[in-house]
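The instructor's notes for this session suggest beginning with a concrete chain rather than abstract definitions. Hand out the sequence below and ask the class to guess, before any prediction is shown, which regions might be ordered.
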Amino acid sequence: MKRKEDSKNNNYDAMSFTDHLEELRQRVLNSIYSILICIFF
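After discussion, reveal the predicted structure:
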């Protein structure tokens, strides 16, 4: 029986380079938004 982590890693292996870039862009934007919200408050 496979663990959830194993199947999750397989999904990342199947991602194309542009998919990885898109995910990175989304995570960077989320980080920037979070920092700005924290600074605001």
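Then share the key points. The mean pLDDT is 83. The two ends are 47 Å apart (CA to CA).
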